[in-house]
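A sample follows:
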Amino acid sequence: MTEQNKDLSFEEALSRLEQVVVQLEKPDLPLKESVEYFERGLKLSRYCSQILEQAELQVEQVKQNDTQPS
């Protein structure tokens, strides 16, 4: 998680990632900016993946706790 992304919700990070994709799809985007957007997008993608992995773990824990006898 980068310092810049750590305060973003999943939805905010995903929205920013979508904005990066829009920029990268522009045919007249200079190479230097393309690389910068690509790097930003990669960081956002990793951040979103981490949040999803944490959510999956939480769901698994809830499922395990639900199946245990009381």
